Amino acid sequence: MKRLNRIALPATLGSLFLFLMVAPFFLPLYWIHIFILIFIWASIATAWSYMARFGVISLGHGAILGIGTYVTALLFNFFGISPLLGMIIGGVIAVVFFAGIGYFCFRFGVIGHYFAVTTLVQAMIVYLLIMYFRDFTGGSLGLTLNPRGTNPLFFQFEDKIYFYFISIVFLGLTFYVWKRIQKSKIQRAMAAIENDEAAAESIGIPIVKYKTIVTAISSFFTAIGGVIYAQYMMTLNPDVLSSVGASLDIAFKAILGGMYTLWGPFIGTTLIIGLEEYFRVVHGATLIGWSVAAYGVVIIVLVIFFPQGLHGTIKSVFGKRVQRTIK
Amino acid sequence: MLQVEGVSAGYGKFNILNNISIKVESGTTVIMVGSNGAGKSTLLKTIAGVVKPAGGEIYFEGARIDGKAPHQIVELGIAFVPEGGRIFPDLSVYENLKMGSYTSRARREFQTTLQEVFELFPLLEKRKKQVSGSLSGGERQMLSIARALMSKPKLIMLDEPSSGLAPKIVTHVFEFIETIKAQGYSILMVEQNVLKAVDLADYAYLLSTGNLVYQGKKEEFLQNPEIKVSYLGI
Amino acid sequence: MVNLILNGLANGILYGGGLALLAVGMNLIFGVLNVIHLAYGQCVMVALYAVYVFAVLLHIPIFISCLLAVAVSALLALLIHVSVVKPLLKAPLINQLLALAGVIIVLENLILATFGSDYVGLQISFPVFSIADIFVKVSSLIPFFVGIITLILIWMFLTRTYTGLAIKAVVQDREMADLVGVKTDRIYLLTFVIGGVLAGIVAACFAPIYTVHPHFGAGFTLTAFVIVVLGGLGNLVGGSVAAFLIGIVSQVAGVIFSSEIGEILVYTIFILFILFRPQGLLGVKVRT
User: Fold this and answer.
1) Residue A122 CB neighbour total at 10 angstroms
2) Is residue C20 a part of any domain in this protein?
């Protein structure tokens, strides 16, 4: 089994990688579109999991998406500032807002349920602000970016293939950051915290600082991911980006795949987007409502029966197998 | 009355108790001593139904009780006073006692039992409307034991009743327990304060890292040289 | 301007009555089961549709329709508890929240599939009368008075009955409640169903005021939880007071500025409270 793993795993990954590199040149547009969506949302889900795997559950990542994308879009539409610069600004503002409130929460011991609800409230606040300033943001009608044709300096491309490679590189970047956090002292510190928070604190582990750092990193990459999505779609819609539903959706994707593993969020995103498209394309036209309700039931069933997410469950099943052969 | 045979139990993958067998005869007071982590609390929790045993059997008045839910164990007549007393902090003294009589068997006789308990612990009657979170440590322990009595138990289990209390209060607590013993209740008590506990006991067990190391009647216990040195500090 | 504010005030107090009931349900469910009922608002929505079905489609007298809707709501709560909440009682927080988010999706879309997305209303008009220059709608008086009566009944249940006392005990110390003989499984079920009954009563109160659509109710859940925190977990009196305050603040701010500002104000107050005064106005310490 182990020898198989040595060859099989890298071989599969390698051929998958090759396929993905070549695919956009011969796949139909619809499929490229789906892949782009998967890559972007998987990056955001992975970024979400930076916090979640340390027990800091956010149900408000929609707030980050909202701030990041709208600041960037407004700076571009009204002041002509390139989104390449705008997304840094938007990202920083999102980090200050989200990780800032997060810092105070960690400092005052707001955790678990209460922290999750606080993040939900943050998402609502951003959504309401977007609605209130509808004269600038377009409110629920959405905001369209001024088209500039294919213009890399302004992060606009008419050809999907550019976004395909941008998003896949970004996904790789989020994976790289995941690995870096995994290897850093934050990982070991967080493991200690999970074990016994009071003991960890007493030996000097700066819990608040580490939680805030992880939250900031997560926020930043989420914001960037959001901007990539906005630039790809060329429109911003608050219900897709900045709503409670969007926040929950990100969490779904990470958890259903397995929020403690590297590939978990990616697997979860593929599954969710796959399911969404399936229900929409195959059943959607005739069964409005029923198909989405069925999707909801699937979610519930998956959560009850696969509490570690799909990848997590697979890993633990294989883990057991390895143990048995050792005996 | 209570018979524990070969019980192993723990939390998760590791067993804290290994193959423990103890017995409590009707009307007697049995104590279990041993250092921290020896598994004494775990045994009480296993009997009370909070922890499921990994192996072994528990019998109460001839019937098997291991694996039953805590509320069933209470109905059968075993009351558990956990460490720290654990009164319901936002309920009044009266309400705590009322909760003690929750089981259907005890509820029928709530008023009579209440009067009996008030006679034993007049302080509780005086304070019956007070919110129990504001009671002192010793008073809480008293309330906790009284609450256990409200369930009309046949066996009372006490987990470190003296823990966290000042020496003078500890003496009071042991006086309550004496009173209860005199009423004829069977008592199974876990204690770290060996000297005081052994005084009350008819029979004693010594646990060390999950294993039963020694057992005997009070007099033998006190005579054992090893115990005298390690646990009684004599 | 002053009239506007007074109107907002009056309506806020009345709206607060309905909110108070929701908050009580949320409070009990969170306190006893340690679960945040994310789909609570949607349960109110379903009950509102039930009132519509009974009263408008089946022409059953309005009062009986409301009673039937309460029964429907209780049944829905039973169903949700048994199929979703109970299996996940020991699961990690995020799994519970996700499963309930799934329930939201199921409820919203089943209603959407059955009734379409048009707004649906009771089509009953109630009289409006005025005191001085304030217009008070009778339809707003109903939630207020029904709310007060229900709150009193709940309070009596919790303090005078054995089961009510058991619920309070479970909130304070679950394991100890087990140890005095409380059948905690039954208490969980009972509490969740009581939550359902309360949602049904709220729906009955709101039926004459609101027109309902499948996405109705999402805002209620969050507002209810905000009230629970502001009032102090486990503190029903505090929760009721907080409900009225929230009702007033959001209505008055909504009148002066805009409804969005009203909501933002409520949420900002929530964040401030949770950081600096988590025990709420009157409650007990809630830090884990």
Assistant:
1) 26
2) yes
Residue B14 lies in a domain: no
Question: Are C7 and C133 spatial neighbours (Cβ–Cβ below 8 Å)?
Answer: no
Interface predicted TM-score (ipTM) of this complex, two decimals = 0.86
Chain C residues 260-279 with a CB less than 8 Å from chain A: 260-261, 263-264, 267-268, 270-271, 274-276, 278
How far apart, in whole angstroms, are the C-alpha atoms of residue C236 and residue C165? 14
- Contact of C176 with chain B, judged by CB distance below 8 Å, is answered with yes
Judge whether B17 lies within some domain: no
Looking at the domain assignment, is residue C281 inside a domain? no
Tell me if the pTM is above 0.95. Answer: no
Structural domain count, chain B: 1
- Touching B (3+ Cβ pairs <8 A), the chains are C
pLDDT at C288: 33
Identify which of C93, C109, C263 has the shortest CB distance to residue A112.
C93
pLDDT confidence of C216, banded at 50, 70, 90?
Answer: confident
- Nearest to B32, CA basis, from B222, B198, B175, B156: B198
Cα C75 to Cα B155: distance, rounded to the nearest angstrom = 42
Query: Measuring CA to CA, which residue among B197, B170, B187 is closest to residue B33?
Result: B197
Instruction: Give the SS3 label for residue B109.
Output: coil
Residue C133 lies in a domain: yes
Residue A323 has pLDDT above 60, yes or no: no
pLDDT digits (tens, 9 = 90+) for A238-252: 988 988 888 988 998
CATH of the domain at C244: 1.10.3470
Interface of C with A in 74-113 (CB under 8 A): 83-84, 87-88, 91-95, 97-99, 101-106, 109-113
Name chain A's partners: 3 or more CB pairs within 8 A.
C
Domain of residue B113, CATH code: 3.40.50.300
Structure tokens at C144: 């207020």
Write out pLDDT tens, residues A60-97. Answer: 999 999 999 999 999 998 898 888 899 999 999 999 99
User: Could you list the residue range(s) of the whole structural domain that residue C112 is in?
Assistant: 2-276
Among partner residues A104, A290, A303, which is closest to C99 by beta-carbon distance? A303
* Torsions phi, psi for A162 (to 5 deg): -65, -45
Domain A29-326 indexed as CATH 1.10.3470: yes
According to DSSP, residue B207 is labeled E
One-letter amino acid identity for B118? Answer: F
As for how many domains chain C has, the answer is 1
Closest Cβ opposite residue B90 in set C162, C178, C284: C284
Residue C287 lies in a domain: no
